Amino acid sequence: MNAPVDLLRLLALPVLGWAAHRDLRTRRVANRMWLPLVALGGALLAWEAWTIWQGGLATERRLFVVRVAVSVGVIAPVGYLFWWLGAFGGADAKALAAICLCFPTPASYLLPTAPSLVLPLTTASGAFAVTILTNAALVGAVYPLSLTVRNALAGRITTTMAVGRPISWEGVPATHGRLLGRANGLDSGLDLDALRMYLAWRNTSLAALRAAPAEGRDPESLPTEPNAPGDGRVDAATDGRPRHGDRRATGPAHDTAAADRENVQNPADPWGAAAFCDDVGDAYGATPTNLRAALDHLTTAESVWISPGIPFLVPLFGGLCLALVYGDLLYAGLAALGMI
């Protein structure tokens, strides 16, 4: 046990907890949050290495090298590989790398109120980052399980019951996640961040488009100078209420009924979807085709299926806390079953 190093490692917990909270609430984590963790982890790793080399046995040195090599040299790069493949968000990969650097070896804590009790309660001999990652995978499995149970109790037995849930159209602009494709009868889904970017770019709201869908489909109704689309984060300006200066949202100043009767459309670019994609570039993978299909559905359906997409940083933080208090959930479970 290297008590000073282990105690200082706990300084990473409030930073990671705040990052998990922000990622859950906004799906955005500032890059500056990771720099203190990298500095802390690097300093503590150097301190621990110096301590081991000064007073540790040869077996302890070898074990230390193996654990650090697995944590920093294998697990951390795997996080970036998952990000590159699209399985992780950028914050998830950075958080995993920071955790691997701050907790490359198992930590141990004696409680002042119970000197005979040592945390974590159970441990495995492997790299601590592996314990954290497997714990996070088990914690992360709770959410799709809860979605499945919730949908089953409501009688929604579908192939997407483990990954999605239905919500009213009013809640879509203020919800994180992805509009599901198959569950909504679409060929492909749409990231709801891309929808918010489109609404901001058009200077409109989903409510306004639903009030006058024929006009919304007509690219001639696009603003002469579109707004900056932003990054798609949830904002009060796109919560389904009329935006300031949006003449289509107010009604009296514009005869939307007449526009609906005329149903004037440019078949080359309904909704101005291609113009949006050309102007904005990459909007979370949105294409003119899936954006048009999503808008057609969102302007007619009363409820839609979305996948909330809980960021992995949340179960990753939970897995870390469990690793520090209890230990390796998978190892303990397999031991209880007599498999190891």
How would you describe the overall organization of this protein?
The chain has helices at residues 3-9, 12-26, 34-55, 58-85, 90-102, 128-140, 142-153, 192-202, 206-211, 213-217, 247-250, 256-262, 273-280, 288-298, 313-325, 329-336, and strands at residues 109-111, 114-119, 165-168, 178-179, 190-191, 303-307. The chain has 340 residues and is an alpha+beta fold. It has 16 helices and six strands. It has two domains: 3-143 and 311-336, Four Helix Bundle (Hemerythrin (Met), subunit A) (Up-down Bundle), CATH 1.20.120; 165-307, no CATH class. Helix 3 packs parallel to helix 5 (90-102). The longest helix is centred in the first third of the chain and has 28 residues, at 58-85. The chain starts with a helix and ends with a helix.
Which key terms come to mind for this protein?
alpha+beta; single chain; Four Helix Bundle (Hemerythrin (Met), subunit A); 6% strand; four-stranded antiparallel sheet; two-stranded antiparallel ribbon; 54% helix; elongated; 340 residues
CATH class designation of the largest domain? Mainly Alpha
End-to-end Cα distance, whole Å, is: 25 Å
Task: Sketch the topology as an H/E string, one letter per element.
Answer: HHHHHEEHHEEEHHHHHHHEHH
Strand content: 5-15%
Please give the number of β-strands: 6
| Poorly predicted regions | 236-266
Number of helices: 16
CATH fold-type name of the largest domain? Four Helix Bundle (Hemerythrin (Met), subunit A)
The major sheet is characterized as: 4 strands, antiparallel
Radius of gyration: 25 Å
Membrane topology: Multi-pass membrane protein
GO molecular function: aspartic-type endopeptidase activity
Subcellular location: Cell membrane
Pfam families: Arc_PepC_II, Peptidase_A24
